[in-house]
Amino acid sequence: MQFFSQLKEIVGTGETTIDLPGGATVSDLLAQLYLAHSALEKWDRNLLVGAGVEFVARDYLIQPNDQIAIMPPVQGG
Questions:
Q1: What pTM was estimated for this model as a whole?
Q2: Low-confidence residues of the chain, pLDDT below 70?
């Protein structure tokens, strides 16, 4: 799993691995992340989650080899 921008600073790394049970969703993953890194939860409503090259919903069923990316909202400039 990869983190970007401010989220990388909150978690303390740009990449980590989390073991999830079969049938886990993005919501399940986020719940585990919030337990380990409570400061992430304030971003909950705005987080973008990608699996591979696609953005996915919270009910997306994570597959064993999915590369998950978690990022804050994209900001223009």
A1: 0.89
A2: 75-77
